[in-house]
Amino acid sequence: MTLTLTLLCAIALDYWQGEPRNAYHPLVGFGRWAIWLESVCRNPHYAPKLQKALGMLAWLCAVSPCLLVLLYLNFPPAVQSIFSIAILYFCIGARSLQQHAYAVYSALTSSDLALARQQVGHIVSRQTADMTLDDVRRASVESILENGADAVFAPLFWFVLLGPFGALLYRFANTLDAMWGYKNPRYLHFGWATARFDDLLNWIPARLTALSYAAIGNSRLAIRAWQNQAHLLESPNAGPVMTAGAGALNLQLGGPAIYHGQLKQKPWFGGEQTPTDADIRLATRLIYQTLGLWLLLIGIGDSLA
How does it sit in the membrane (predicted)? Predict the structure, then answer.
């Protein structure tokens, strides 16, 4: 089975089935493994350097067993193709992202702000209880753009580069970053290595995603926002993705938000227009248009190989 056909099958399966139920998702088991490792390795009373070293050891222990098994599996070609499709299906989340976004959109169009706050709380880490309509819209579009890179395009990039091993390595690293990568007293030192590994694995895919957003949307605004505003955002990878995406849609995103009870003065970035309900759907459309562009380019490369 060709690379392009494998990708098409996995993406079609994702669109048809969506995210697997939690009880059957392999990442649920991986999460339990990571929680156990944290209980063994993390000790806030240790010196910062020792906490960092133990965090790196925990990261290696978390990903190594599964990846070593994957490296030594030797299936017949037909079984290998099915296995590759299944791995990529578990590693991407385009349909899940769309479903979460549409849940927010549906609540907003029904004039149910309380439900919209609840739904957007499933895809953002900021506090949502006191969000205004504009806050909900901005947070939704920001999350769609950023998670498009994390949950769709980065796994695809590593799958194309390294096969199932690459996709799983990225997904495990990204999951650990979501668990340990916070800059708070609990994880500041223990999660340091986890955050660095995630930054490293996302560096190229994030910039390819930003470039793709710019190619599909308002290219001039996207490139200008990327060049002038990406450095204002804390994340070295989310910065290019979200500024380029916001510029591509000509939407002004960012602004003050509450995290863990503290008001954070995030910068404004992107275009000029205030997001509307419809822009949530347009943002998800941008993800699928970008996905189509990637599949087209990969298919051309695959045919020439």
Answer: Multi-pass membrane protein
